[in-house]
Amino acid sequence: MRCRIRFGTVVRLFFVQCCLFFAVTDAPAADPNPQNKIIVAGPPAGVSNALVHMANQSEQQSLPWTVEFKLWTTPDQLRAIALEGKVDFIALPTNVAANLYNRGSELQLLNVAQWGALWIVSRDATKENLIDFKNERIAVPFRADMPDIILRHLLEKQGLSIKNDLDFHYTATPIEAMQLLITRRVDHALLAEPAVSMALLKTGSFPLSAISPELHRSVDLQKQWGKTMNTQARIPQAGIAVLHPQRKDPALIEAFLNAYESANTWCYEHAHACAKQVSEAIPMLDAEAVQASIEHQTPHYARIDTASAELQHFFQILYDSDPASIGNALPDEGFYHQRQSAP
Question: How many domains does the chain have?
């Protein structure tokens, strides 16, 4: 019997799967923390990989505390976590951390752990530089959010006019941007890992591959940033903040940072094993896609005392483009955790 695949049905099935990546779930309230327990929260993204591994380590009694990982998937959940103070440490975009701090949240940024995971995914395998997208239409999720600001800044620095030389098609979510690609209504989309790897994996598998266009990992925005800004090929995109005011214990923070840095290094050195742990903790993520995303991300890591100058420069760019993106002010010194010297 011949099997006929209806285009609309297959695409809908694909986006049901993809929507799990951005699913809305209500996180249960956390119980008060015992002294030997640390509660951490993070999104379904690379900055959370080390947190998941730390939770696995604590199950194996390789850490001095029990580590409980909680997933956040929406801005509302993130704001609630920041305000309720029932989580000790949280992974989040650096500009969101600045925004929350400027709006009164008692947090301090401890590190920058994810230094860029932004790509243009394209139907055209020949495009290698941003200039190649002149007069092209690009789907861009979340207008005036960090990825949009970064792309516009790079294009303008390279002499392209957003108004005259490009056609940005803004979408409410990355899922909508991918849908435009799959249905051939745009040729390019700005996406972040692990959504990039998820899209490439799904469109390369049957039955979607029978009707979807061939997609390519095109321009690496981190490399474009380094080339354009005459700096390292990295963007201070996400990090870990300490939230619980009564847990701002220098000894605890130092021990946590050492454990996180070790776990982060382990994930880059053992991408396959790390991806398996992450997919088990965050079922909406596919292990193969997580592994691919790890292998394509910048492995640089820096504590905030080392990263602050680079981050402040980045915040200035965001502020100049859209002050609201960081809470209408550059964060003051209280935002940056200061490592305390031993007495």
Answer: 2
